[in-house]
Amino acid sequence: AKDAGRGRCMCYEPGMDADRETRNELELDLRQAIENGDLRVAFQPLVSASNREIVAVEALVRWNRPGHGAVSPDVFIPIAETTGLIEPLGLYVLRRACEEAHHWPAGVNIAVNISPGQFRNPAFADQVGAIIGETGTDASRITLEMTEGYLIQNPERARQAIDRLKALGLRVALDDFGAGFASVGYLRQFGFDRMKIDRSLVLALDESSRARDMLQATVALARSLDIPVTAEGIEREDQAMILHLCGCDELQGYLFGKPMPAEAINAIFAGTDGA
Ligand code: C2E
Ligand code: CA
Ligand code: CA
Ligand code: CA
Questions:
Q1: Where is the EAL domain (predicted)?
Q2: Whose CA is nearest to atom 10 of ligand 1?
Q3: Cα of 10 to ligand 2 centre, how many Å?
Q4: Can you tell me the distance from the alpha carbon of 79 to that of 19, in angstroms, rounded to the nearest whole number?
């Protein structure tokens, strides 16, 4: 690894390198992938808790790194966030989702994840507006999902950014609820249209009966603010039943469908239409 230091400044410290080396290589390859249009988008259904029909589809980015295979978004999204690559990446995913949504029934909503790095840019709302215009998408079909991080860091700016997006007619959801520190009060404070319960809370149902009481109370609080709740990471029928009983109106998880290529989700809708 030492000769990999060629051409670098003399302050190169051999001790900290492997990690940084890998990160730099990952970043370079990711940059290439974005430039070459090599990223893919997978689509996962969200179903109505009452009749199990597909009510929305979440777009999830996928990267098949040459020579390494599939890299998890949990690995490369944080790198994209610290390098500015998240901006082109995020806009690409939004555009792909809007393009594919033409193949879905008009009532099926589009969910797209956004990171603070995108959201922080004052031009973001305009960029989103441009994509909606160019793809001819009804803005009210789109829900942007965001996690709490930036809300805590910079509540003032976050509120403004959310307001700009809502002014375009988009909806916003608080993602990964229960995985961090966000409280139900955030829903009102930031004007969220939906809350998504993190998979960790769903898994906790297996551990204790208190988990169920807590989940039920949390969902009830959100609903008392008129904010509907999606539960994520549902893999079993018993989980689906409990979350429905707790008041979640939408469910998402492998039980209903894994993230799949565009052709596969489109085929599901084509089949439904033809039936
Ligand atoms: P997320 O937004 O919470 O997305 C849900 C994750 O849970 C996805 O992982 C999905 O594949 C996985 N999942 C769904 N149902 C189940 C289930 O029943 N069981 C289990 N074990 N997992 C399930 P994925 O696709 O690996 O994405 C991980 C995270 O990366 C996402 O979490 C999101 O935070 C981020 N991410 C993915 N795509 C994008 C993107 O386009 N932009 C941004 N900013 N972040 C993204
Ligand atoms: Ca999400
Ligand atoms: Ca989530
Ligand atoms: Ca997550």
A1: 23-273
A2: 259
A3: 43
A4: 12
Mutate-to-test residue for ligand 1 from 34, 58, 60, highest number of ligand atoms within 8 A of CB? 60
Question: CA-CA distance, 170 to 275, in Å (whole number)?
Answer: 31
**Among candidates 170, 72, 71, which has minimal Cα distance to 119?**
170
Instruction: Using the structure block, give the residue that is written with the tokens 């929305």.
Output: 56
Query: What confidence category does residue 7 fall into, taking pLDDT thresholds of 50, 70 and 90?
Result: very low
In sequence order, the β-bridge partners of residue 252 are 46
Write the CB contacts of 220 (distance below 8 Å, at least 6 apart in sequence).
247
Tens digits of residue pLDDT in 75-100: 999 999 999 999 999 999 999 999 99
Structure tokens at 99: 């393009």
Question: Residue 28 has what pLDDT?
Answer: 96
pLDDT of residue 17: 65
Q: What rounded mean pLDDT belongs to the chain?
A: 92
Exposed e or buried b for every residue in 216-229, given b needs 16+ CB within 10 A?
eebbebbbeeebbb
- State the pTM of this model: 0.93
| Per-residue confidence band for 72, with pLDDT thresholds at 50, 70 and 90 | very high
Distance from first CA to last CA of the chain, Å, rounded? 60
Q: Please, which residues bridge with residue 118 across strands?
A: none
Residue whose pair of structure tokens reads 């492998």 in the numeric block: 254
Q: Indicate the top mutation candidate among 77, 96, 260 to test ligand 1's pocket, ranked by most ligand atoms within 8 A of CB.
A: 77
